[in-house]
Amino acid sequence: MEAVLQTKGLLSLPSNPRTRVFQSSLGLKQRFFSTKPKTPGGFSLSSNGFPKFPSFVPKNHGVAPVERNLFICRAEAAAAGQPAFGESEQPKFLGIETVTLKKIIPLGLMFFCILFNYTILRDTKDVLVVTAKGSSAEIIPFLKTWVNLPMAVGFMLLYTKLSNVLSKKALFYTVILPFIAFFGAFGFVLYPLSGYIHPEALADSLLNVLGPRFLGPLAILRIWSFCLFYVMAELWGSVVISVLFWGFANQITTVEEAKRFYPLFGLGANVALIFSGRTVKYFSNLRQNLGPGVDGWAMSLRGMMSIVVLLGLTICGLYWWVNTYVPLPTRSKKKKEKPKMGTMESLKFLVSSPYIRDLATLVVAYGISINLVEVTWKSKLKAQFPSPNEYSSFMGDFSTATGIATFTMMLLSQVIFEKYGWGVAAKITPTVLLLTGVGFFSLILFGGPLSPAIASLGMTPLLAAVYVGALQNIFSKSAKYSLFDPCKEMAYIPLDEDTKVKGKAAIDVVCNPLGKSGGALIQQFMILTFGSLANSTPYLGGILLVIVLAWLAAARSLDTQFTALRREEELEKEMERAAVKIPVVAQEGGRNGPLASDSVLNPTAGDSTGGKPPRRI
Q1: Continuous segment of H or E residues that includes residue 2
Q2: Cα torsion for 498, 500, 505, 508, to the nearest 10°?
């Protein structure tokens, strides 16, 4: 009979073992007068695999000894980071296990490709909807509120349904392949046919009836295919980056690996920002070298969409390779299993979780805060660079500068995580956004009195506002990519799989556009109330302050919950590693056989045979 002991290191061997009989801790009397346990096959428990007591070999009496497997506790070795008894040390390269490198390198390449595509798509979508005929930056708040948000909610509902019926691999391919197909079709089919499929005459007639107040909503109808591209580009950032990539990364990495390598993922990603910014600028300048009558923007769009399709297929290839050749880490088996839930049940479950609510607060607060500044900045940007060529070229430089700043922040982020922890890292992004946002709004409010000083620098107040707004976006996004995103994704790791999958779908796909749409609604309300964004600037600054304070409070609360979950998970893993099976063997009827466990737990009990008196050693 096997006795199963739940203990931590109770049976681990001393570092300098001495020759002694393997017995329980007994008194002198019991040590000398109790029956000696026989060791199977002449072997006793040893740390080096050799018998310690060759003189204690029992006689077989014509009966072969029954072999027994003795298990040695490996909890101490695992806790110390050393290979356990009988196990070889994992091969390493540059101090990192090769198994870890097989996960980290493909993930870094995937993140590089995803961010390269996202930079191209993000810059292109702004050029399409802002510089199109009959449109302006005023379309953005309406587009985010009335088009982007409903499509994001619809995708979340569809994703929740698919997550219940498809495997993780099938779900990944089912989601990403339609994106790749659409962007390829837009560059080669939809945009060349835009002159035929856009109802410009209908939009003009409606504008004459409704008046210029409805320029933004009618622009969505006028350039509907461009708006569809805008929404798909936004969803690429929410779905492919947040749900697919980070969900996959959380699936195959441990918390220790995440703390070490998640900040470094952005190094390769922001190299992608730098190179993709140069790519956008190259195609923007390429249009100037074409002859008259040639649609240079159409040719540039085909080139950029070809790159997006190629890198999208590369992402799928890397995902397949990792799933084929990389082993998944073992998670705690004591997680509470949750049944599959429907859409409404999932939403109720997520709303009832304080942990998920705090995560949602972080995402929504970021979306509102960045949107309050970004739309105002883009309106200034179009006034300074009205042509698509100049606008796209500036956005290329902007993306390159963002990549350089974020790369620098990535180098510092690992030090911040290791020295100050998750809580401090999560609070840096809202602090940076608050300070830079106040600077941008202050320049707009006091641009008149500062005009002489600005003119002495060779700039107009408009150009200065464009540059300061660009710096605000660069610093805020660099802090987001290097600190906010890793903090947010690390917070998912201790959760069970059901909460992790459905929570990410609800937060990243819905809350992200909800934050942006919330900022857009605030701006729409301010425009209708005060007449313009410029007149509402002081009130927008006050709203920004309130939102950032709520953001900081949610980060503080989430830090406490995250720390508690991490401690619970570590305790469960320690208990699982310390679970040891010990077969108890003794002589019974002249043969080696199992005894009841109380013969070990009760050292004063005699031999089960009871026929022989105790013998002195």
Answers
A1: strand 2-6
A2: 170
Amino acid at 603: P
Q: For the purposes of burial, counting CB atoms within 10 Å of the CB of 468, is it exposed (0-12), middle (13-18) or buried (19 or more)? A: buried
Element (H, E) at 244: none
Residue 16 has which token pair? 């300098």
- Main-chain phi, psi angles of 68, to 5 degrees: -125, 145
- pTM, full prediction: 0.64
d(C-alpha 382, C-alpha 379), whole Å: 5
| Tokens, residue 193 | 């046919």
Could you give the dihedral angle defined by the CA atoms of residues 605, 607, 608 and 609, in that order, rounded to the nearest 10 degrees? -150
Question: What is the C-alpha radius of gyration for the chain, rounded to an integer number of angstroms?
Answer: 33
Q: Where are the beta strands (DSSP E) in 166-236?
A: none
DSSP assignment, residue 84?
Answer: P
**How many H helices and E strands in the chain?**
23, 6
Domains and CATH numbers, the chain: 94-328 (1.20.1250), 341-577 (1.20.1250.20)
66-81 pLDDT tens trace: 444 434 344 444 433 4
HSE, side-chain direction, 13 A CA sphere, residue 84: 12
Q: How many residues does the chain have?
A: 617
- For residues 339 and 356, the model is more confident at 356
Q: Any long-range contacts for 328-337 (C-beta under 8 Å, 24+ apart)?
A: 328/251, 328/252, 329/252, 329/253, 329/254, 332/569, 332/572, 332/573, 332/576, 333/576, 334/572, 334/575, 334/576, 335/496, 335/497, 336/496, 337/496
CA-to-CA distance for 174 and 180, rounded, in angstroms?
11
For residues 37-52, give the mean pLDDT: 42
Query: Between these two residues, 15 and 345, which has the higher pLDDT value?
Result: 345
**Top-confidence residue, 260 or 277:** 277
Q: Could you tell me which of 461, 141, 409, 164 has the C-alpha nearest to residue 273?
A: 409
Rounded to whole angstroms, the Cα distance separating 188 from 192 reads 7
Residue with structure tokens 């969900």? 247
501-537: per-residue pLDDT in tens? 777 777 766 776 677 778 888 877 876 677 666 677 7
